[in-house]
Amino acid sequence: MERHLSGYDLSTRWGRFRANWDFFWKDHAFLRLSFANAHWIGPDMVRAAQPWPFQLKYWKRDGIKTIINLRGGFDASFYVLEREACERLGLDAVDFTITSRAVPTRAQVLGAKALFETIQYPAFMHCKSGADRAGIMSVLYRHFHLGDSIRDAMNELGLRTLHVKQGKTGVLDYVFARYLEEAEPKGLSFLDWVMSDAYDPKAIKADFQEAWWGTLITDRLLKRE
Predict the structure, then answer these.
(1) Range of the domain at 136
(2) Stated pTM of the model
(3) Which residue from 168, 164, 162 is spatially nearest to 208, judged by alpha carbons?
């Protein structure tokens, strides 16, 4: 890991300057100074946009014990700054990479379930904007950890947190809609469906893309009703 982060060596002035400059401008951190898109979604979980290092101190004061990075980005400026802040503050730093434009794999769904069963709470999970990756993980948190139905937990994917289902990130909504349409009426739990042969991430995404392009052409380009 140190090999990947050598360009942001925080022990040197130049490395720290580069990390903060990149974080502020290229990671668009300046937009998150006044809007963190932070929401408590249960008694022991916050979802949010990428936090500034100094903001983690305030979250610790609120009782947060674990920071979950959903972005990956292990060679990025935000990552090295976040890791340093977590170490300084005594916060557990956990990485769980997920994407905003793909159907989660079985391994990712099972991994999310295991994550919510093993981390220290209260916890704080974030992606970049707090809208999409944080959204799907919030649905899984509420379903697996709080026991909410998928139908109720899907409220975490909405405009309240800047998620737009009409775009390509709507594939996240589509996954749960497929479950509610095809599997729930048969009495299958969400996890049973994910573990069945019917759950094919590539095929589900292809179906979504076909429907998305069809809607785009019909409603937006041809202006048909």
Answers:
(1) 6-150+160-221
(2) 0.90
(3) 168
